[in-house]
Design brief:
By secondary structure, the protein is of the alpha/beta class. The protein is built from 13 helices and nine strands. It has one domain: Rossmann fold, CATH 3.40.50. A seven-stranded mixed β-sheet has the order 4-5-3-6-7-8-9, sandwiched between helices. A two-stranded antiparallel ribbon has the order 1-2. The N and C termini lie far apart (46 Å).
């Protein structure tokens, strides 16, 4: 219990040591969450800051396939079991990223009319739960299967370091995988479009200048392009982000959550003016499972020529003062 007490006192240790201290790491995780204020963004730190495993993964040249398989993502395991990746030796990260893209692309269906739905909203907005709600209620066009849900955050989970860092109760897994997961997701998006796959693209959409080329690229390739934007009170989003971290070990960066929401709100008018085939804007600060709640505040259906504002006051409460 010496390590556990040291962790409680703020000490950090090498990853190779922590992975052999399972009882202490689990005990620290339970202690860290005990009585925590879920409205305050934070994350635990257990690994020494200079440890090689915390290097941003895009700066590494190889992935070692001879290691802690129990912590590898299902996609990684599948690539190994199918012989797509070799076992027991280091492989280039470029080759790994290519294999991941090919595998994930194959999960998305090819519909008679290709469809892409962009999901926008900041961290903790509840985008995943929202799209499940819309799908189960029959709102989501085509009822795309869950396997067709892609985006930067999903690509993080296929990187070995993501789950290895999580396994020792350190909250920096998402941060170190951010750049490489974006490399994977950008290539994945282009590949999905080139193969006419139908999918949901989950991102914050906080950077309009980076999102616009993706929208235009899909349009150029004769896709039906839709958007679901999710607006959420910041305090609610913080609690959701912390609840998700408690459940999954995936922490939002404390310095980025608020900005991801405010930037999305500031760009929302531009998205509303974009020629989407359909568009839904939802306010998700309440429980979507309550039947009498009507979360859709703006709507454009395929037969509509312009967006209908169902609750313009709520819409403007976000867009009129985003900063």
């Amino acid at each position: 219990m010496v390590v556990l007490e040291a962790l409680k006192g703020g000490s950090k240790f090498p990853f190779d040591m922590l992975k052999c201290e399972r009882e202490s790491v689990v005990g620290y995780w339970d202690w860290w969450w005990e009585g925590r204020d879920m409205g305050v963004l934070d994350r635990p730190y257990t690994i020494s800051d200079s440890d090689p495993i915390l290097r941003p993964t895009d700066s590494k040249e190889t992935i070692d396939t001879n290691g802690d398989y129990d912590h590898f993502d299902d996609v990684f395991q599948k690539l190994l079991s199918d012989g797509i990746l070799p076992r027991g030796r280091a492989i280039s990260r470029t080759a790994y990223r290519s294999a991941v893209v090919d595998y994930l692309c194959g999960l998305a269906p090819q519909l008679p009319e290709p469809l892409v739905i962009f999901m926008g909203g900041g961290y903790g907005a509840g985008k995943t739960s929202t799209i499940k709600y819309l799908s189960s209620s029959g709102v989501l066009p085509g009822r795309l299967p869950q396997c067709a849900l892609h985006g930067v955050d999903y690509c993080k989970q296929v990187l070995p370091e993501f789950n290895l860092v999580k396994s020792v109760s350190d909250g920096r897994a998402s941060e170190i995988c951010q750049n490489e997961s974006r490399l994977i997701s950008d290539t994945l998006f282009a590949t999905l479009i080139s193969e006419k796959r139908s999918f949901v693209w989950d991102s914050s959409m906080s950077d309009y200048e980076k999102t616009l080329p993706k929208l235009d690229y899909a349009k150029k390739n004769e896709y039906q392009v839709g958007m679901f934007g999710v607006l959420t009170d910041l305090e609610v989003a913080k609690r959701r982000a912390m609840k998700r971290a408690c459940d999954t070990g995936r922490f939002a960066h404390p310095g980025y959550l608020e900005g991801s929401h405010r930037k999305f709100w500031s760009n929302l008018d531009q998205y509303v003016r974009y020629p989407f085939d359909f568009l839904y804007i939802l306010e998700n600060s309440i429980d979507l499972d309550t039947p009498e709640n009507q979360p859709i505040i703006a709507l454009k259906q395929p037969e509509d020529s312009e967006v209908q504002f169902i609750d313009s006051d709520t819409y403007r409460s976000y867009t009129s003062n985003p900063s």
